[in-house]
């Protein structure tokens, strides 16, 4: 082997090493994405989802693409889900959102979901309680028209 071949050899080895390292990184990144998958089928009354190592966002995106379900969230929704879910769309959505605080508006045409955050580890539920008003023995005052309100403000009310 000549002197020129020996000088090219370290440069060639560095290039091959860099190529092998880049290939390994691409395979590692692509390999993780290749394992995650979501399959959705059925009708809104009978939804079938198969999720394998998919994020909650991927599952909700699949539901949104296939059904009249809209969602929004400021959370990353990166919890991984694996499982099979069957049932009406609203029940499947609730099961998929297990572990998150959310609000859902269900109409005959669609489902709107607001995903707020992942449940706290202390297990305390987030709830708002509004006390009921005590029944009044008085009847509520009838609504005033604009003309009556003007007269009232000017002190001319009867």
Q: How would you describe this protein?
A:
- The protein has 158 residues and is of the alpha+beta class.
- The longest helix has 33 residues, at 3-35.
- Strand 1 and strand 2 form a beta hairpin.
- The radius of gyration is 30 Å and the shape is elongated.
- The protein has helices spanning 3-35, 56-66, 89-96, 146-153; strands spanning 37-43, 46-55, 69-73, 80-87, 100-106, 111-118.
Structure characteristics:
single chain; 158 residues; alpha+beta; 3-stranded antiparallel β-sheet; 3-stranded mixed β-sheet
How would you sum up this structure in a few lines?
With 158 residues, this protein is α+β, with helices and mostly antiparallel strands. It contains 4 helices and 6 strands; from the N terminus they run H-E-E-H-E-E-H-E-E-H.
Write the layout of secondary structure elements.
Blueprint: H1 3-35, E1 37-43, E2 46-55, H2 56-66, E3 69-73, E4 80-87, H3 89-96, E5 100-106, E6 111-118, H4 146-153
Parallel strand pairs: 3-6
Antiparallel strand pairs: 1-2, 2-4, 5-6
Range of strand content: 25-35%
Biggest pleated-sheet summary: 3 strands, antiparallel
Report the C-alpha radius of gyration, rounded.
Answer: 30 Å
Strand line-up of the largest beta sheet: 1-2-4
Instruction: Please bin the fraction of helical residues.
Output: 25-40%
Element-by-element helix/strand order: HEEHEEHEEH
Low-confidence region ranges: 30-34
Q: How many helical stretches? A: 4
The overall strand count is 6
Shape by Cα distribution: elongated
